[in-house]
Amino acid sequence: MDKLESIELADNIKTLRRRYANRHKIKKPDSNLIYIVKYISDENFKGDVCYYNFKDADIKIIISDDKIIIDNNYKLLEFYDYTSKVKLSAFYNNNNEIIEWYFDIAKEIGKENEVPYEDDLYLDVVVKSNGEIILLDEDELKYALNNSIITKEEYEMAYREAKNLIKLLNYKKEELWKFTNKYLYFFEQI
Q1: Secondary structure percentages of the chain, helix, strand, coil, to 5
Q2: Going by DSSP bridges, is the β-strand pair 67-70/86-92 parallel, antiparallel, or unpaired?
């Protein structure tokens, strides 16, 4: 890591990041964003599921490989399981085709003033639409540990959760697709 990358990393990781489910609506309160939160309790999931439809996205979000994850009529589902250390986000394009599944490893997943949140522990697991699984942001996790932003126990827990998740996800793309599509269809009918 060069000095510039180190400075950028330090600017991004000053504290543990608490991300609230309503952050997109708060940033653009007058936008045409559809934001719905429902508590789900069925055989597949117990917790809050947040649905976002970026009807008129003011910005386009592009990630690596020039992949667009937020644009007009793109959808996002976020799954907040309050008994877990993993938050799932499923990104869909304007044709309701999966772009990717993104798993945030969290110190805590909770609810405050009826709004779900996660305390992000930096380490992430991505499942691409082709089934490839990628572990992300190990450098951020190590930086947070080395700068006393997180404890050694939190560092180890993040890796343990990520490794268990990767084992669970191997060869499960079809099940993951069915799981998230079930809820996308549910919210599209509301």
Answers
A1: 30, 40, 30
A2: unpaired
pLDDT score, position 4: 42
User: Strand pairing partners for 98?
Assistant: 92
Q: Provide φ and ψ at 8, rounded to 5°.
A: -60, -40
CB 80 within 8 A of CB 103: no
Q: What is the torsional sign of CA 174, 179, 184, 186?
A: positive
Chain segment 41-64, per-residue pLDDT in tens = 988 899 999 999 998 777 788 887
Q: Angle at CA 56, nearest 5°, toward 102 and 129?
A: 25
Phi, psi of 7 (to 5 degrees): -65, -45
Helix axis angle for 138-146 and 3-12, nearest 10°, is 80
CA distance 135 to 178: 22
**Which fold would CATH assign to domain 3-188?**
FomD barrel-like fold (2.40.380)
Question: Domain map of the chain by residue range?
Answer: 3-188
Distance CA(99)–CA(152), nearest Å, equals 34
User: pTM for this structure?
Assistant: 0.89
